[in-house]
Amino acid sequence: MPGLGVTYGRGGATSTLQDLQNSDCIIIEGSNMAEAHPVGFRHPMIAREKGATLIHVDPRFTRTSAMCDIYAPIRPGTDIAFLGGLINYVIENERYFEEYVVNYTNAATLVTEDFEDADASGLFSGWDEETKSYSAETWRYEGMPLRHAAVGGSQDSVVGEAGEGPAAEETHGGRPRPNDPSLQHPRCVFQILKRHFAKYTPEMVERVTGCPKEAFLKVAETICDNSGRDRTTAFCYAVGWTQHSKGVQIIRTVAILQLLLGNIGRPGGGIMALRGHATIQGSTDIATLYDVLPGYLPMPDANKTHDTWQEYVETETAETGWWSNIPKYLTSIMKAWYGEAFDPENGELFDHFPRLTGDHSYYPTLMDMKDGKGVKGCFVFGQNFAVGGPHARLARDAIRNLDWIVVLDAFEVETATAWKLDGVRPEECGTEVFFMPSALIAEKDGSFTQTQRMLQWHDKAVEPPDDARSDAWFVFHLGRRIQDLYKDSTEPRDALIKAMTWDYPTEGETEEPHIESILKEINGYNVADGSPVGGFAELKADGSTACGGWIYSGVYAGGENKARRRKPWSEQDNVAAEWGWAWPMDRRILYNRASADPEGKPWSEKKKYVWWDEEQGKWTGLDVPDFQADKPPDYRPDPDARGVDSIPGDGPFIMQGDGRGWLFAPVGLKDGPLPVHYEAVESPVPNLLYEKVHHDPVAKTFDRPDNPYNPPEDPRFPYVVTTYRLTEHHTSGAMSRWIPWLSELQPELFAEISPDLAADKGVNNGDWVTIETTRAKIHCKALVSDRIPVYDFEGKKLHTIGLPYHWGPNGLVKGDVVNDLVPVSLEPNVAIHEAKAFTANLEAGRV
Amino acid sequence: MATGFLTDTTVCIGCKACEVACKQWNQLPADGYELTGDSYDNTKTLSGTTWRHVAFIENPKKKRLTGDVDLVALAEDVREQLPGGAELDALGRWAFMSDVCKHCVEAPCQQACPTGSIIRNEFDNVFIQPDICNGCGYCIPACPYGVITRVPEDGRAFKCTLCYDRQKDGLEPACAKACPTESIMFGEVEELERRAEQRVQELHDRGYTSAFVYGTPEVGGTGGIGGNHSKFILMDEPETYNLPRHPFLPQEKLNQASAASIAAAAVLGAVVAWAFRG
Fold first, then answer.
1. pLDDT band at A157 (very low <50, low <70, confident <90, very high)
2. What is the dihedral of CA A499, A332, A660, A167, to 10 degrees?
3. How many CB pairs under 8 A join A and B?
């Protein structure tokens, strides 16, 4: 999540769900929280009962809207225009939290003279028309380019060329940077920001988003009235923001807004990134992304100076800020995985470690699968991408071109049956399918890391039936067997397999691996005696500690599984420190140093949270301070300071090289240092704000016959589709379409359309309709409702089609695959697809 | 001690967790897989196999067609289009209501039951004893709320038991347990009445003056039913939620019906007597 990562330093939700109870205003945008996160939504409901104002900004009037005090409709894909309008409102009306902005953000910092904003051209300086990419060199702070953006993970893959830093003496953070605390210098970040968003006026917001000006202004006034010393406003978002070709920049926009309003690191404030599954946060933490190792450590890359262990560590170690600790984390992970076979002194074993050779993210891999380019087989755990992944037809075609596929699931999901779908002749599909029955949640131990970075343990309640086994069992025994097969190999390339520590104790007749032992390894331990470390501060670069995922270090401190703590919220305060365990180091609200003023005193009695205790000489409060515990507020780094010592006592964003929240991102993003409103890759209208550039210029598109795009403003595809989930089903329906009690509640695919569009097309409620893009055509029933707004765009009516995407050809309840309609057009920084705004046509009947 | 439900529709988010939890705990079958096209409501009604049912009421103003219909206002309502202005108060535009057996104080179903299957148990809940029910079905038309039906393959009548088995083990009913927003509250009837009163007062203070408690002897309990142990906080007329404004005991109509019959017999008799006069 570089939108948050680049701005604040960590790519995770900044606060907790229960902390929403402390909010004075909650604005939900890019999320249908009541439907997709009904249990978490209890907290906004409690806040509402306590007097908070709830706002929903969304293209559809949903069950969430029905619970909110204010509903503001916006056309799909225009969130940057709406949020940019809010930023403009806050600056123009001087409603920003000045003391917070001056001290805790980079507002005062000067930017190099070479920087040019994306005004008339729609492009920032540094654009290369030939390669269709940016060089970030002109986006830097004056005189002091940062070598690394503290975005976590494989930094350069996010940072791009900016990772090639200048000489070391220029990069340390201790040196005072040219700045203007009066925020008046024309090249200070604040003035750049002010000029950049000046054109996002309420009138322009209305024209671009279709949101009535009055509604927009009501939202703007409400969030300003509910921000400041005494009051805080929280934002909640989900995939309604991420699944756009400029999703990261949408999140950047809100991250900037929340800094201006002074709402980060404070109770009732923050940005709640709602995750789509029970442990999506966990799956990126410990680490299913192809380009990161657990804890967002950079994956070794053949195209970087990663030839030897020493080079790899040196290249990735930041000069200042938290990422200067990387050698400790990298060494500890190698010790966890390879034990004695790894010696950090020579690092020889690292030579055999796999390297990235390019973009191996989901879509390029899928295309390689389909094109027969070296992908022979595929393991599928807890996934049903034959239905759940955008351009699902491409996925099914890709599966059918594999030699083998292993699917572990509790039900016969479409991913396991691609060989007999889409009218293919099974005898012509050469894929060997291994379908393994998997245990469900109550049948295994384990942890979930949810939305707020919190690990919650679940215990096995019953044994899985028959041959069903947990995913961990499968991986563990597969690893055992592979190791056995290679035990006599003398090939150097097999060294890693032989060296792998794979000795978890097992339990019971089925030899289920002991899951807590895996948690202990992730937590980290002292190699000498196997005792768990207390946290990542104890990790060493000399090989004396092992740790499988440094950000989770502390979860097993003292040998206690802290993820398993279950003291009810009713028996503690609503920080709920004794429920589960949150990374990092059980800090529940991140950047909570910002809940105190620069001198370390709470901004107000009502919003006190973490503060400096002068007598004890340390930070204290309701939460674990997200700050060096004994660093006084008036600490100023020595010009020679390195690592975390370079962060001043009033720099709450400790992961950033300068300790500040980044209104302007000098490095870290491929599509600009500030957010710009672009239309979706497929949009029926032109870009009113930047006429020359229609959509995000760096968005990844794929020119393939099986992935044609609907051209912008194409009259054949006049409507905008937005996809979503319903409470009654779960994503691709893999866990719900086989359950009678859930299936009866939403038994069939439908398209939500407005009475206006229905009248235009002669469609009655419940009639069949056909929806078509250049990729595919689907049939479904129409659900006609005035909950679907009709947007006015320059005097023209724009219609939206709402499509839940839970159905497929298998299961108790079936339906066409909505994701077949979706193009592969990807966000440039994180390669997420654009399912929340693309164009289509709709006709009555099944044609 | 009498127990019951208080269902506060003002905090219901329409998630249907209550429906699922009820069916799972009580092992009730699904009723079929049919898209009704009626908002997000695909289970349609309470029945012998659906003991909690979440109703979805879109734009209640438009739907209220009983009584005096203001045709001009109605037409304007239909013309009104989103986003025609800021929705400064979205509350009530799309209403959700988790319906359930009302557990009447004077339960008509119990009075209609000829076998004694329907009793008041030790929690003062209206309970159908499945081993005594003979499937006669008299309780079905007796219920003024349409709560009970016979289960086709079984023949007997079923409805909400208020999770009798769970209560005996000191647990709250499955629906209340599953509700994420405490829209469904379970407890002692007197305590729930206090909470309902307090909640309605809160809503009134915040300007939602249409809020009221449904299921008190005054509203929803006239006609001898004496109120419900399962009450609701509503924001609109009972009819909006498909609830009767004046539920009554079937025998309430008995005197009128008998009188009408006697009158009819008398008139007919007179006519006959007149026809055969002389």
1. very low
2. -70
3. 144
